[in-house]
Design brief:
153 residues, mainly alpha, Arc Repressor Mutant, subunit A, two-stranded antiparallel ribbon, 7 helices, 2 strands, 7% strand, globular
Length: 153
């Protein structure tokens, strides 16, 4: 018998999407969800400081530092000095980063459109309504994921 509890369904959806395996999110790519979200956030909101990016992604400072370093090494993100505060570095996508983000977004849109078409009109409407309500409930909830613990030094 298939389990239908909320937590099990949510875990099943993430597993079926391959969200726990970066190589499955975009076949042929080895990207984490954090990298995909960071590229998308920078495409929409750049320039951002690392702290602002961390806030958008809800990641710890050390995780954002590693993430930005990885994206820089790939040539997808560049740091530039803030014109108003030369101590502050702002993040932007490079031209290559913009191309990669566009490819990712196109792939994700096509994949999701294909999945959406497998649902009836009633199921699509119910899914959108349910996900919209879940997002609202999460935003209104005092519950937040606990920050990752730093290893003992």
């Amino acid at each position: 018998m298939e389990k239908t509890s909320f937590d099990q369904l949510l875990m099943d959806v993430f597993r079926e999407l391959g969200a726990h395996r970066p190589e499955q999110i975009l076949p042929g790519w080895s990207l984490t969800l954090s990298e995909i979200y960071a590229l998308g956030a920078l495409a929409e909101r750049a320039p951002l400081s690392q702290a602002e990016l961390g806030g958008v992604l809800m990641l710890e400072k050390s995780s954002v530092s590693r993430l930005v370093q990885q994206l820089e090494q790939r040539g997808w993100v560049a740091r530039e000095r803030d014109a108003r505060d030369s101590r502050l570095r702002l993040l932007r996508l490079t031209a290559q980063g913009e191309r990669i983000n566009a490819q990712i977004q196109r792939h994700m849109f096509e994949r999701h459109a294909e999945l959406f078409q497998r649902l009836s009109a009633h199921e699509r409407a119910a899914l959108l309504e349910g996900l919209t309500a879940l997002r609202r409930a999460l935003r209104e909830s005092p519950w937040r994921p606990a920050p990752a613990e730093s290893p003992a030094e």
